[in-house]
Amino acid sequence: LNRIVSGDSVSSGGITFTFADKNAGTGKAVAVGGGLSGADAGNYTVNLPASVLADILKKSPPATVTANGKPYDGSTATSGTVSLNGVVAGDAVGTAGTSFTFADKNAGTGKTVNVAGTTLTGADSGNYTLTIPASVLADIAKRGLSVNADDKAKYTGEVDPALTYTITLGSLVAGDQLSGLLARTAGEGPGDYAIGQGSLSAGSNYTLTFTPGTLTITVNPATSQPQTLRAVPLPSGIQAPSSAGPGISIDANALCAEDTSCVAN
Fold first, then answer.
1. Cα separations (Å) of 121 from 58, 79, 93, 224, 255?
2. Beta-bridge mates of residue 113
3. β-strands 152-155, 213-218: how paired?
4. Using CA atoms, how far apart are residues 237 and 200, in angstroms rounded to an integer?
5. pLDDT tens-digit profile of 57-96?
6. Which residues are CB-contacts of 16 (< 8 A; sequence separation ≥ 6)?
7. Contact present, 136 and 115 (Cβ < 8 Å)
8. Most buried in the list 76, 83, 160, 216, measured by CB within 10 Å?
9. Do residues 7 and 39 make contact, with C-beta atoms less than 8 angstroms apart?
10. Stretch 148-153: mean pLDDT, rounded?
11. Is residue 1 a contact partner of residue 46, using CB atoms and an 8 Å limit?
12. Model-level pTM greater than 0.85?
């Protein structure tokens, strides 16, 4: 206020300013109303424009972004949430379209998750701007896998059978495979020998639980029969030699004939 008489109590405290609507924008019309206030206000008149211009800036509420961890599945995709804080009460504002992508597929803790594609939704979304972090952190847990060594058997003197295993719990991600070989306790005598994990591995993305097997070695019954000489009476028509000689020749086929259990020595 200009040209107020010295000592008079007059102010513009009774003048009001009102935007035409609540929404954000620049150069928006502001209606001007009301009048002067103070003990000496009645001694004055004020000429006010019907409106002036001003801006309503968009609100930028802080966002809380959380990415969800997951077990290893061979992909980089994951899920998460975006929460807006400080939205004006009664306003309809939300978010959509956010993608959450791990920097790589491998298991680990505190891994970078890239955040992208978030847009604001709702009737009042035009009054807000969104600022969210480009990345957050989350974990990829190792995938559980249980493997049992298959029991094996062989006879003494034989080559070891191939040592194999069976996945009993969990599964490998498509494209992944176990590497390395099982190994057994050394020895070739009859008995039981443990089949251990050896170098078998599923890699760093798995937690491998291994159950040992057993290789049983036994004596081959076909080669374990004792070699015996059977005593067979000579036919009555054969005369014993009159005197001892250097040796006696015996036809093994004649002795054994059809006796298939006979072993010639």
1. 15, 19, 6, 85, 105
2. 102, 136
3. parallel
4. 72
5. 999 999 999 999 999 999 999 999 999 999 999 999 999 9
6. 31, 32, 33, 34
7. yes
8. 76
9. no
10. 98
11. yes
12. no
